[in-house]
């Protein structure tokens, strides 16, 4: 989380040159945009009747806050609110305290209106991406998209644009998420980092405020590797501002091959993925896969402005897998007709998922067409990933596509059903709320005062040696 804000006089071109010298044998600059067959969405969250009622009440509350249709940001605000996982995430983050959830989501709406995170222009933050200080590629065993963050590759002075670059990549990671997944894995690599390339506590608090308050329940894993001892002071400084649940998700120096399939883990961390970062192809792939227009909005292959629904990944949205009526979790989808027409229509109060879409009358949908989050440009012939929707079936008469099999995202309420009671009976929601602290992973790193050797290393880092 800390790799974006630093003081640096290193130019983007000089950093790129140094990276080029480290080219690896059999390296590729292509990125993974879908999980491999070893990954699947495993966890489920189950809500009782009272919790489902609170989720519906929170939806009703946010409907009173929505911008007027005349506001240019209106369709994007509705897109965020229509994500089936949005309101449940805020209720969980508030620990089911309804008034707290209201304050949190209202604060996020106000922040999004000012920041417009889904409309950040790629040209605005492209310079920040030139050295690969943030890279989005690959998925962990739970099908979470992986964001690699490397403070040692910082290339710009501290500015608001660095924060926009962070948010831009978080939004793209959400685009990468396959149906059933709504969290990201972050790997922070302190190799080659110095204390000067680490953010101040004030800046770190600003970043934490955005992540914890406006991307609630989005962090699945925070993995910190190659830590010099002086990082202890930084994490000690920000620890009081970390939500306990967030703190429990952070692990220091874990064995990454136990968390990420080796086929999609960067070889620097023990994987088989010989990734050689090249800015031009990386930026092109990210932009085109997520259908980002120059103004930050979304654009179809034919050049039309589109509004693909949020919550199940960009590829599923473009293939017509949209949230089912009454969905309260990502992965609860149905196949719709007239996909192009639907996604070209801006979201409005009249066409929210509670009222539409119309399901397609198709007898079956191939699993690989349903769950694939976009073929990797590295291996377009790889088998379809197991994301928890492996045995998807298309129902007739307006019912949903339903996951079955190991690790499946359970069934949702059918398009023809309504009412809380029916929902409780029929829904097997797609995650289990597991927030208890886990056992520490990896070796202890801050269990002694710094040795003379560590002090020497710190002095050399500060001097840029």
UniProtKB/TrEMBL annotation:
Composition bias, Polar residues: 25-39
Pfam families tied to this protein: CRAL_TRIO
Region annotation Disordered: where it falls in the sequence: 1-39, 345-465
Domain CRAL-TRIO: 124-277
Biased composition (Basic and acidic residues): 445-465
Transmembrane regions listed in the UniProt entry: none
Protein name per UniProt: Pleiotropic drug resistance protein
Annotated organism of origin: Kwoniella dejecticola CBS 10117
